[in-house]
Amino acid sequence: VFVCSISVGVLKEDIESFKAVVSLFEGAENQIVFLVTRSENSTEEDRNKFRNEIYQHHDLQDVIQKISQKKNVKEENQSLRILFSGAVDGNLYNQGSTTIVCKTMLNVTEMRSDIFQCIFAAEKPVQITETKLYRTQGELEKKKQEIIALTEKLEKLKKEVSE
Prior knowledge:
Elements: E1 2-5, H1 12-24, E2 33-37, H2 44-56, H3 61-71, E3 81-84, H4 90-94, H5 98-120, H6 132-162
Parallel strand pairs: 1-2, 2-3
């Protein structure tokens, strides 16, 4: 799950971070979800506008296409799951704004329901060992061991030369 905030729209940094997450979790593209927080006051229209902004963003086309191919989906707007989340502001409740609190609570409940549906609908769990992140860590560990061995060998040679 990649998380960003709806409060300021789509930021360049969000796009770059999302692409980095997708790259790190290469091999698990079919389970990637774009989660937008601070959406408690958004309408369905706002959320659809934000979704379209993501789907149409020129810097994401290659990532969305990659996810589409991994999911074997023809319609790219169906490949990347974009979900929304938010929270009820406790201050509104304390101020007695029950109408606003109830409306926000319904909105938040609907969004959280979508998140749970997405989680429980996952067809197959992601095997972390199949991701680029895991493979890269293994490769780094091997390189670390090689460096340690070479350093020990170098120290041994230095000792032999100095004797």
